[in-house]
Design a protein that fits this description.
By secondary structure, the chain is α/β, with parallel strands linked by helices. It has a single domain, classed as Arginase, Chain A. The protein has nine helices and ten strands. The strands form two sheets. The protein has an eight-stranded parallel sheet, with helices on both faces. Strands 3-4 form a two-stranded antiparallel sheet. The chain is globular, with a radius of gyration of 17 Å. The structure holds zinc ion (ZN).
Length: 302
């Protein structure tokens, strides 16, 4: 088996049970994992130099002090923190860093980082939208530091990954491709923001499988092939599912399976590894089904 899940129980210690982004999400997402013969690896803490290449040092320090001295609280109206949040967020970023290392050393073909808090809204100097540190951005910087020439990020979360786009829009070695509901939180992600290394494919509320099949079967496949990356990083947010309570897209289980399959097939075609990192997804039962679909596909492709 050349796939693995990276997970640690520490990811459950950042929690607010009344908030949609709570620890139960991860438990449901991983419920089906024992059905598959996929090894689970423990992450290690993120390297400070890599984290500092993504986020401002004073922001990292603000997060640390808030969690150590002022917990619990909120960084913005959506984004809570508790006494463990700093440590949990370091480990979430560290899981993605470690996944990239394992993939680029050739030990694995695919990795799923089952992490919380999510990352794609986190800006260089600001927590936002349930996100503290930008996990996928840490993975991209790590990949470049290990000699990757080009990194392709694909983000299928229902929300636009403003943080990821902003961190890399002036970095031609990193390509950001995103499908997301638009107009919608966080307000970014229109086609006007597209440039040579940013491709936003906004979707109206109510968009379902057919449009997503076009976006992943055609637009994504063409973009990733022509960029010719050394690794694909996936912001895997499952709130595009029709049962999600926060977003208004209408993607079914089979639509999600199609997207995962396209991403895995593109990695196979280009003979490059692929890392998934959990972002959103707030219906527990849909998360369980999406987890099963994802793990089955990872096992099939490994
Ligand atoms: Zn989302």
């Amino acid at each position: 088996m050349r796939t693995a899940v990276i997970y640690d129980d520490i990811f459950l210690k950042h929690d607010l049970p009344t908030h949609p982004e709570n620890a139960l999400r991860l438990k449901y997402f991983l419920k089906s994992l024992p059905e598959f013969n996929i090894p689970v690896l423990k992450p290690k803490n993120v390297s400070y130099d890599i984290l500092r290449a993504v986020h401002f040092e004073n922001y990292i320090e603000d997060v640390r002090i808030s969690c150590r001295e002022n917990a619990p609280g909120f960084f913005d109206p959506d984004t809570y923190y508790g006494e463990y949040t700093f440590d949990v967020a370091l480990m979430a970023a560290g899981a993605v860093e470690m996944g990239v290392e394992l993939l680029l050393s050739g030990k694995l073909r695919s990795v799923f980082c089952a992490v919380r808090p999510p990352g794609h809204h986190a800006e260089k100097g600001r927590a936002m939208g349930f996100c503290i540190f930008n996990n996928v951005a840490v993975g991209a910087v790590k990949a470049l530091s290990l000699g990757a020439q080009r990194v392709f990020i694909v983000d299928f979360d229902a929300h636009h990954g403003n943080g990821t786009q902003h961190i890399f829009e002036n970095t031609p070695e990193v390509f950001y491709f995103s499908t997301h509901q638009y107009p919608f939180y966080p307000g970014t992600g229109s086609t006007k923001e597209n440039r040579s290394n940013v491709l936003n494919v906004p979707m109206k509320e109510g968009t379902g499988d057919a449009e997503f099949q076009k976006a992943y079967g055609e637009t994504y496949r063409k973009a990733v092939k022509s960029f010719s990356p050394d690794i694909i990083l996936v912001s895997a947010g499952y709130d595009l599912h029709r049962d999600d309570p926060l977003a208004g897209l209408e993607v079914t289980d089979s639509g999600i399976e199609y997207i995962i399959t396209q991403i895995l097939e593109s990695a196979e075609e280009l003979k490059i590894p692929v890392l998934f990192s959990l972002e959103g997804g707030y219906n527990l039962y849909a998360l369980e089904r999406c987890g099963r679909i994802t793990f089955r596909k990872l096992a099939e492709f490994s």
